């Protein structure tokens, strides 16, 4: 009896050792395969996992960012110090953008397609979020993509900031996607990102691009072609890629790079080129109010009055032309830097964050003519900037 029991124990022990060995081999194989995965394979896994998100309604239309570290031949800027400064700012803006998004959104999961010039660039950007609580980081699902440089003409790439043209190729870069929301890295959220998805329900069946106005085209006397009523700014674009591919056989990016060759004056950047393209195709454009892309020129006298901003508050604040780092508009600059500090760790509660914002707006107002800035005489500016924060804090206290 003892011998039989002992044999059973030995057999069970051998079986356990065999299973441990099999799991060990399998784990080693997995680790080895994981270490040898190409970046494209990692992206494939991320894309598969993203399908399990609890917020499928919103994940159907992802956010898109395109960022470059400006190293390497095709993305090289003119000076090494310029590269370092620009890259440091981009990392700061990346963190602040997504931190502000999380502060004002109630979504448990937000899908982001991140296009970069290298895996190193992606890693540095994502590492800038390392101080955040895990539950906050887990709300963002990043899917990593390479920028397909073979699509881009060098002369256009080098004409403006590196990578700026890539967003015009999203229809070709994302052939399996119906719609996306593109964001420049120098934007911050002052309200819920969820409101951006409402744009698509307001577009008709001919409209493939929704964009906010760029009043500088009017301020400059319309010396350059300006789409829509005032010209458009490309810092935030809601794009129906299916309609765009159908409307432009050669692809938007390639078409833009080809039609601007003989343009006089030549376009300064991709935004000029898109305006040129849409001037003759007004049916493709859905014009948005400044609420969705509020830039310093939104305060110009020639700019359209933003009823949406007054009634609902500014949703996306855009530091166009490095205005978050220059004294173009004191209030938007200070709001950005308060958000930048708060999003380092995301430890401040929304009431604490609102308190800091309110204090700084009051301080600027108290200084009178000491601060001169673009939006100084913009009516109800504080209310428009802080509308969402105030409403969200009030709702938690009621």
TrEMBL record:
Recorded GO terms, molecular function?
UDP-D-xylose:beta-D-glucoside alpha-1,3-D-xylosyltransferase activity
Transmembrane intervals: 6-25
Could you tell me what reaction this enzyme catalyses? 3-O-(beta-D-glucosyl)-L-seryl-[EGF-like domain protein] + UDP-alpha-D-xylose = 3-O-[alpha-D-xylosyl-(1->3)-beta-D-glucosyl]-L-seryl-[EGF-like domain protein] + UDP + H(+)
**UniProt name for this protein:** UDP-D-xylose:beta-D-glucoside alpha-1,3-D-xylosyltransferase
UniProt record similarity statement: Belongs to the glycosyltransferase 8 family.
Q: What is its main location?
A: membrane
| Cross-referenced InterPro entries | Glyco_trans_8, Glycosyltransferase_8, Nucleotide-diphossugar_trans
Q: Which PANTHER family match?
A: IP22168P
Q: Note whether Membrane occurs among the keywords.
A: yes
Tell me which EC number(s) this protein carries. Answer: 2.4.2.42
What is the protein's known function?
Answer: Glycosyltransferase which elongates the O-linked glucose attached to EGF-like repeats in the extracellular domain of Notch proteins by catalyzing the addition of xylose.
Q: Name one GO cellular component term.
A: membrane
Top enzyme class, one word, equals transferase
Q: State the taxonomy lineage.
A: Eukaryota, Metazoa, Ecdysozoa, Arthropoda, Crustacea
